[in-house]
Amino acid sequence: MPTKPSENEEKYFRELELKMRMEKLAKEQETTAEAEKRRLKELHWLHCPKCGQTLSQERYGTVDVDVCASCRGIWLDANELDAILENAKGSNPFRSFLKILGK
What we know:
Blueprint: H1 7-44, E1 55-60, E2 63-68, E3 74-75, H2 80-87, H3 93-101
């Protein structure tokens, strides 16, 4: 004859099941967040923030500058302007910057 589980046993298994469900949910949310991050990166990676066209990378000295062929926008990543200005030491930095940009 089966015996009915005690109240403590029922509580233990409810808590165990809740814990397992919460862990599963957290893992699913993490996977979903990572997938969404990858999707957004693929959607926007190397696209012009102004017109949305594909950017090309052009090498100027030691720096790869992102250039939009459509609107001719020029986009610099973090510290790239500093690198351009560092390469222009000894000359007029503004003139060197414009020269690099093709103006």
